[in-house]
Sequence to fold (151 residues):
Amino acid sequence: MAESSAEMKLPLWLSLSVLTVLGIGTASVAAKGLSLSIVLGYVIMVALVLVSIALAKVTRKISAIVFITTIGAYISSPWFFGAEALNAAVKTVDFLSIATVMLTLAGLSLGKDIPLLKNIGWKIIPVGLVAITASFLLSTVIAEFALGLWH
Fold:
């Protein structure tokens, strides 16, 4: 049986709409109620994403993630005239609500890679376990060292 390698692309407006609705819903559950500041926070973040994607398409050399990071850092810094208002709006959006939606969608996207994982076979399990363990241990050592500097 041949595996289909057809790739399905979602329009940008659809994927951003779904992420925004799911994110606002998750943030509202975390905040125990929907508020206008949560919606405003998501509007600001979506605007940042759209501007960064547009700049990445114009430059064709720099990734959108570079623009998002750079612009986001600037507009949230004290040097930007509207930083206080922007930070107040975005602060109402719980970070875990954003991470929950993104990790859920990332997990669901792994379903398309199951045929590839079947080709790799059982060897991926010990490699994955070693990678996860090493990552955990290294982050623990770094955290202990960093926290030790404060005490």
About this structure: Residues 124-150 form the longest helix (27 residues). Helices lie at 12-31, 36-59, 64-75, 83-91, 95-109, 114-120, 124-150. Residues 103 and 109 are 10 Å apart (CA to CA). The chain has a mean pLDDT of 84.
